[in-house]
Structure formats: C-alpha cells, structure tokens
Write a structure and sequence with these properties.
Elements: E1 3-7, E2 10-14, E3 31-35, E4 42-45, E5 59-62, E6 68-71, E7 81-85, E8 95-98, E9 104-105, E10 112-114, E11 121-127, E12 131-136
Parallel strand pairs: 4-5, 5-7, 6-8, 9-12
Antiparallel strand pairs: 1-2, 2-3, 7-11, 8-10, 11-12
C-alpha cells in the first residue's frame, strides 16, 4: 500500500501500511520521494504559446507538434531554473528556446533549437550575470 504525504517541501509516499508525519530523510527505509519539490508547477506548452515568455521555477511538458518558440525570462534571479519534459517524444526540430537580449545559452549568444527526441528532460538554469546553463538528461 502507498500512502501519500508531504513535508519539507517534498511529496513522498509510504511503502508500507500506516501513516506517519516523519519526513523521508528521517525514515528512509519506509519513504520514497516521488516529486521534488511538491510546490513546483507543471504546465503543458504547445504552439498556441508561441512567443509567450517562460516562467522561472516551472516545469513544462513541452508539446511540439508544430514549430514555435518561447523566450526565457529577461530578468531572472540567480539560480532560477526551468525544466522541459519531453513527455510526448515530439521535439524533433519544432521548438526553439530563445534567449533574452544580452543573455547567452551555455556561453553562446544564440538561440537553441530542440532538434532531437533523445533527451527526455532539459534543464535551463540562470547563472549571473547573464548566462543560462542548459543541460539534457
């Protein structure tokens, strides 16, 4: 039986019968983290969102059946992160991540075309003064 709970900014579930308010880091044998952090929004993005700025601290299920682009935030806080999830295996060249004026992506002053379906998750993290570090998993 799995019983859902939350605490310490995490969502977790108990792998055995019973309930507990103990956070998973204090009861590791009986708890499993399923989402971290629990408050991070997950939003589906499609070609209908073309040109709409992305929001830091959001996970995007990125649909790319038609070509479109979305800009990164122009004035994010240091350490701000955006996560892109390839939940439908359709990135093959239809989505472009655009950088704000004066910003770089991995040190390069250019936009990023998502042109492969091999990545399941792409993270963009802002590092002062004006660079987005983009990594794929």
């Amino acid at each position: 039986m799995f019983i859902a709970g939350s605490g310490g900014g995490l969502t977790y579930r108990r792998q055995t019968n019973g309930t507990s308010a103990t956070p998973p880091d204090q009861d590791a044998a009986n708890w499993q983290v399923v989402v971290s952090p629990a408050t991070r929004p997950v939003v589906t993005s499609t070609h209908a969102d073309n040109g709409v700025p992305l929001t830091a601290g959001t996970d995007y299920k990125l649909r790319a059946q038609s070509a479109y682009s979305r800009p990164l935030p122009a004035a994010p806080a240091d350490g701000a992160e955006i996560v892109f999830i390839n939940s439908h295996n359709e990135w093959g060249g239809n989505f472009t991540l655009t950088r704000p004026t004066g910003h770089t992506l991995n040190g390069v002053a250019d936009n990023l075309l998502f042109n492969t379906n091999s990545a399941r998750v792409v993270r963009a993290k802002f590092v002062e003064p004006s660079n987005w570090v983009v990594t794929a998993q």
